[in-house]
Amino acid sequence: MDIGRNTWQKQLIIDTLKREKNHPTISDLYDKIKAVDDKVGQATVYRNVNKLVEEKKIKRIMTDSGFRYDCDCNDHYHLECNKCGNIIDLYDEKYIRLIRRLEDEYSIKIEESKILFSGICDKCLNYERKSSSIN
Amino acid sequence: MDIGRNTWQKQLIIDTLKREKNHPTISDLYDKIKAVDDKVGQATVYRNVNKLVEEKKIKRIMTDSGFRYDCDCNDHYHLECNKCGNIIDLYDEKYIRLIRRLEDEYSIKIEESKILFSGICDKCLNYERKSSSIN
DNA sequence: GTCAATGCAAATCCTTTGCATTCGG
DNA sequence: CCGAATGCAAAGGATTTGCATTGAC
Hints:
Two copies of one chain form a homodimer. The first copy, chain A, folds into two domains: 1-72, Winged helix-like DNA-binding domain superfamily/Winged helix DNA-binding domain (Arc Repressor Mutant, subunit A); 74-135, Dna Ligase, domain 1, CATH 3.30.1490. Helices cover 45% and strands 23% of the residues of chain A. In chain A, the strands form two sheets. A three-stranded mixed sheet of chain A has the order 4-3-5. In chain A, strands 1-2 form a two-stranded antiparallel ribbon. Chain A has helices at residues 8-19, 26-36, 42-54, 95-106, 122-134; strands spanning 59-63, 66-70, 77-81, 87-90, 109-120. Chain A is of the alpha+beta class. The interface between A and B is medium-sized, with 34 and 34 residues. Strand 5 (109-120) of chain A pairs antiparallel with strand 5 of chain B. The first copy, chain A, binds a DNA duplex through helix 3.
């Protein structure tokens, strides 16, 4: 649980990440950080974000458009919308049961899960329905 | 469903992929292919594998160690073992119910799912148990 | 004062692209 | 033949690394 030395760069990176709810890519994050102080180096952002992932303070999400980061460490799923590209969070109260069932059935231990669905989010689906009812 | 022109390179790539049950990376695949005929270019492998993914003939799995490919297109989960690094398949008869539940609850449409667990596979877990009972 | 952390630039890794050439239909 | 597919090499993009310097403790 060593947090290392407390530099303002590290703090800025953590703060920005916590404020960002939209599952940013590293370059999203880097842009936001540079807007606040452009003296922060890219390598510093990479190094700190990687360390945060290792320490399990944040989660790395692998999408088709590259890695994204999520500071919500509760277990949940993600949906990557094929229309608008946004990533939305899905919480599932039966998640734990799914895990237990798989662990039992396969005699394995599941320590972490990366669950990414792709499809169409509620907003885009709603928009689609309206459009098709007009035409 | 256009399969395009039937070159021996394309056929070799498809055959190798189908024979490979171990979720190979592109470079695993490339090595195997070059062992058969080293005149196949890397770009050809990339181009063909990408096309197969687009055509949904094979699946792309995103792991921490990069992209891997799976020719089993039935819906299933994967477990990446933190000990041995292997990726094993998990099939779940309740998968469809999970999808339906999420679709209903969030008013979304799920078209594809990429589900990757990490943890410890049955072999490594079994080995661990034996070791700890000795010590 | 030490040494972890930083900034910069170069290096590395993975993947895609441009283009001349080949070869399947 | 024609043009899709290939092989090569070069380009591209994302991430990491080497190293001198800075600054947290």
